[in-house]
Amino acid sequence: MRILLDTSFLVNCVKFKLDFIKQLSDHELFMVASIADELNELASGGGADAKNAKVALKLIAKIKSVAEPESTAGDVDASLLELSKEGYAVATQDAELKIKVKALGGTVAFIRQRKIVAVE
User: Fold this and answer.
1) pLDDT band at 60, cuts 50/70/90?
2) Which residues form the domain of 33?
3) Which of 71, 74, 84, 98 is the most exposed place for a label (fewest CB within 10 A)?
4) Residue 4 neighbours by CB under 8 Å, 6+ apart
5) For range 87-107, the mean pLDDT
6) Buried-exposed string 95-108: b where 16+ CB fall within 10 A, e elsewhere
7) Over the stretch 98-119, which tens digit does the pLDDT of each residue have?
C-alpha cells in the first residue's frame, strides 16, 4: 500500500517514540513537499513540537523510500485529499482530515494507543 505521511503523524510518532518505519515496512512511504515545509516551520518555533519536528525532519531525510507524488492542490490537506482519491492511504492524527479521507472512500493510517500504527 502507498501511504502518504502527514505532519501530525510524523510529529506524534517522534513524540511517542514510535518506530513507524518498522511498523509500515510492508508499505511504500510517500510525502508531498509541503509536509517538509510545515515541519520546518514548526521546527523554527519553540516548545516540544519544535523539537519533535526537528527529529521528524531528520527521520524523513534518512528514509530512502519516501518519494514525492504529484499533486496540483494548493495546501497540504487538499493535496493529501486529492492523492487519497488516487489510492494513496493517508497517515495522519488530524481528526478532521481522517473524516474527509474516509468520506472519500480512502484509507487512513493513524497512531493507536501511542504504540501501534493502525491502517483502516
Assistant:
1) confident
2) 2-119
3) 74
4) 30, 31, 32, 69, 80, 83, 84, 88, 89, 90, 91
5) 97
6) eebbebbeeeebbb
7) 999 999 999 999 999 999 999 9
Instruction: Assign 66 a pLDDT band (cuts: 50, 70, 90).
Output: low
pLDDT of residue 93: 97
User: Tell me, what CATH number does 56's domain have?
Assistant: 3.40.50.1010
Number of domains in the chain: 1
Strand 89-91 and strand 116-119: the pairing is: unpaired
Find residue 114's DSSP bridge partners: none
Q: What is the mean pLDDT of residues 40-63?
A: 90
Q: Are strands 28-30 and 89-91 parallel, antiparallel or unpaired?
A: unpaired
